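Private note to self, pasted from the team thread so I don't lose it. Backbone tokens:
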């Protein structure tokens, strides 16, 4: 078996996230995803059909962002982790979200790790 870590880093997206009245409008959120993906063997033909095509993660996050939104970052990162784990080759996923504009002097984030 060959394990690879696939990264989707620093995806900035506008979405509704939060519990405060000023968070009713979409705000900037940065998402990073790391997936440990197991293949039966190392890719040998240099073709996308041999590996996980990470487009589904980016597209899935964009779809989540256009929905009703989330009250909690914990709920958001769990939803992204579940999206990634839909592919049976993903053995572990780490998802981090960061609200970029909550405070003038800091960002605030949440991270989750889910394993099969």
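Design output:
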């Amino acid at each position: 078996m060959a394990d690879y870590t696939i990264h989707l880093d620093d995806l900035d997206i506008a979405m509704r996230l939060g519990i405060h009245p000023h968070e009713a409008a979409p705000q900037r959120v940065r998402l990073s995803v790391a997936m440990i993906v197991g293949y039966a063997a190392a890719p040998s033909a240099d073709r996308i059909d041999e590996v996980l095509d990470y487009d589904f993660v980016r597209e899935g996050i964009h779809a989540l962002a256009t929905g009703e939104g989330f009250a909690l970052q914990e709920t958001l990162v769990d939803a992204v982790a579940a999206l990634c784990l839909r592919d049976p080759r993903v053995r572990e996923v780490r998802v981090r979200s960061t609200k970029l504009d909550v405070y003038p002097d800091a960002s605030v984030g949440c991270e989750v790790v889910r394993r099969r």
